[in-house]
């Protein structure tokens, strides 16, 4: 990288701030106003539910971009019987060897969401159930969630379309269509450059199923809350997993005539039973014993019996008192 590009990367805070304001507003508007492609996602982009015998994952990935002129047409549904998805289990097992995918379905689709700015969306909705990651030790369940941070860089294709390594397959060519000149700037994550080398390197290694940005759950916000029926943790990364912009037509005000972007934002929510605790990548919670399960039933039955006995006693004793009164 030339000294010019290095220096430029060190003096960009103000320009980068302007660039973010310019770029994110139209992107967010497009994401909010565009009609939903797949079943609408609610809450976090990735929702993980920890159960006694398994862990369920609802993962809604949405890449918005106009670096390319268009994305390949796609609308497909796959399940765990598809050889294309074998790498998902392998990536989980690389971190949690006992992990076994019981259920996996994927609905992937591309569409143009704003023809004025040329914004496209690449959306993938995964539903996954994983067994073998929970262990019972006495009355306590320990769930190993290390597999959530899996790094899957394997090619996954369906209908001739790359579903995972979209950076190398599509976005790099999008960046390359903007050759460097005095009025073109390239941004990757928080850095700015006069040459596209670093954004291209960053983009080449970008995969939609690279979840290595997910940190151990014990570092997340949330946890046990009294009187709540579940324990919930939330992760909102400070930086999006993928964020690249090309500014074309630099003006004297530090803005650009056109902005071309690639953005993947994400967040994670983990839902576990009440009073669960986190330790590193594990979630721990107690399961009710037989005595704890039966005790509420016994209490309810006892109360009902006492109430019934009281009512019966009242009904029987009233006629007796009335009869004694008449004899007098």
Question: What does the secondary structure layout of this molecule look like, with pairings?
Answer:
Layout: H1 3-10, H2 13-33, E1 46-50, E2 54-65, E3 75-79, H3 86-95, E4 100-114, E5 119-131, E6 134-137, E7 140-144, E8 157-158, E9 161-162, H4 166-176, E10 184-188, E11 191-193, H5 197-204, E12 221-223, E13 230-235, E14 242-250, E15 256-264, E16 268-273, E17 277-279, E18 282-286, H6 290-327
Parallel strand pairs: 1-16
Antiparallel strand pairs: 1-2, 2-5, 2-15, 3-4, 4-5, 6-7, 7-18, 8-9, 10-11, 10-14, 12-13, 13-16, 14-15, 17-18
Helix pairs in contact: 4-5
Order of helices and strands: HHEEEHEEEEEEHEEHEEEEEEEH
Class per helix and strand makeup: alpha+beta
Number of helices: 6
Largest sheet: 12 strands, mixed
> Total domains, how many?
2
Write down the overall geometry. Answer: elongated
Average pLDDT confidence is 84
């Amino acid at each position: 990288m030339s000294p010019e590009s290095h220096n430029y990367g060190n003096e960009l805070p103000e320009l980068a701030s302007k660039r973010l304001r310019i770029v994110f507003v139209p992107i967010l508007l497009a994401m909010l106003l565009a009609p939903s492609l797949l079943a609408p996602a609610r809450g976090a982009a990735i929702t993980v539910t920890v159960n006694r015998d398994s862990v369920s994952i609802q993962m809604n990935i949405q890449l918005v971009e106009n670096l390319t002129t268009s994305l390949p047409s796609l609308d497909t549904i796959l399940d765990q019987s598809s050889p294309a998805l074998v790498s998902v289990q392998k990536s989980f097992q690389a971190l949690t060897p006992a992990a076994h995918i019981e259920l996996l379905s994927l609905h992937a689709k591309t569409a143009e969401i704003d023809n004025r700015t040329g914004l496209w969306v690449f959306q993938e909705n995964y539903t996954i159930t994983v067994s073998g990651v929970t262990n019972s030790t006495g009355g306590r369940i320990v769930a190993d969630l290390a597999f959530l941070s899996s790094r899957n860089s394997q090619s996954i294709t369906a209908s001739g379309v790359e579903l995972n390594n979209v950076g190398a397959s599509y976005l790099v060519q999008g960046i390359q269509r903007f050759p460097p000149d005095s009025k073109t700037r390239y941004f990757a994550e928080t850095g700015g450059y006069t040459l596209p080398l670093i954004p291209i390197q960053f983009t080449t290694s970008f995969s939609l199923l690279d979840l290595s940005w997910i940190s151990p759950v014990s570092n997340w916000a949330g946890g046990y809350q009294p009187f709540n029926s579940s324990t919930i943790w939330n992760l909102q990364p400070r930086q999006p997993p993928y964020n690249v912009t090309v500014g074309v037509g630099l003006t004297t005000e530090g803005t650009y005539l056109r902005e071309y972007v690639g953005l993947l934002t994400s967040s994670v929510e983990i839902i576990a039973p009440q009073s669960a605790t986190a330790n590193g990548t594990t979630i721990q919670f107690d399961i009710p014993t037989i005595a704890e399960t039966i005790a509420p039933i016994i209490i309810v039955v006892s109360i009902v019996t006492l109430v019934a006995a009281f009512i019966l006693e009242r009904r029987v004793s009233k006629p007796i008192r009335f009869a004694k009164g008449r004899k007098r």
